[in-house]
Amino acid sequence: MRNNDHIPTGTVLFPLLLAAASLAGPINRSWRSLGMGDAGVAISDDVEAVHRNPAGLSQLGFKGSCAPLDNLGYKRNAVDAWIVGVGIDVNPEMALKLYRFYDRYDSSFSAAEEDPKGLLKNKQLFDDIYQFDRLPIPVNTSIDMGGAIRNYGGALWTDNEISLQIDRGALTPKAGIRLSSTIAAEAATSRSFIDDRLNLGFGYRIVARTDEFREYDITELQTEGEKGATRMLLKSLSNIRRSEDWGHGLDFGMIWFQTPGLRYGASIQNVGMKFYGKFVTPDLSAGVAWAPRPFQRNDKWSRKINFAMSATELLEDTLGYKPLSKINVGAEWEQTVIPHTIVGRVSVGLKGGYPTAGVSGMLLHFLKGEFLTYAEEGGKFTGDDENRYYMVRVGIGL
Fold this sequence. Notes:
The protein is α+β, with helices and mostly antiparallel strands. Helix content is 18%, strand content 46%.
């Protein structure tokens, strides 16, 4: 077994994995906003305002606490929370391909427990392994806890990516496993002015990032991979104590009600955040949302419908990306299906030209479930390489 202190200089696995992990400032994904194309910066009227736009916290509350939304008859929550939510993101196509490969050579892997070098004699296995050559195979998991009431919100969350990458190698195949973890705590507050038409918000985020890597010969993976993954997790948690792994940043947001149904919003996140001595690029977003009055209800058959458009990552200047790739559009429909029993929401959108969709539901006011799919550009220019996510989250909330 070899750790990252003993990886040969010529290996290609670690640079490729590290490049794949490079990100702008860490922001927890707003599942609701991403379902509608990440166009929800001007909506943000639930607990995810802590992640997306802290000014939206002023929209929570009982009837009579936000004049524009009360005049609109807009469905609102006095309290919104994820007591605990567990999410997973797996590429179904890649997972199926990997399962078929492992199932085909299951007997060979089992035999390798007694004779690890026996794998080297299986020529067909090495031919088939080409389909995964230098191709990252990630599995992402997340845990979310957060809550919000009018003007106040907070959250704890973690995103973890375990990525396997296989290199065909000159003599024997090698496998690299990377564990990348982000752990964050957030707090936000907001205030309303001018008869609740102007909402301003402020947030603070503290984040810890760790990145661990192990490389194995393919003959070692069967016997050492599980132990190595456990050691990586323990080392990752231990490394959180290092000061260079921590970042602190500020969020600022605003929402303006032009009319009760027409909102303009903007937010800038991770202002002043540094990792390893370098500032991250703040995420600047601006948008508009329209909630048509005839479709809104705030009674036992409550319903809200929103249409939205936004421009995101306005400070990013990635070579080859067209300006229109930053434009997102989307719509959502939230409806009480059975009073006091089932509430559901469906959303669709376009994020940078790629389609998104989300479905969520709440049962008996505390059991929550969500499905989300969206895509980001993985290539060098818009439309070059679609990097699609399929995510499921279940948990307990309010």
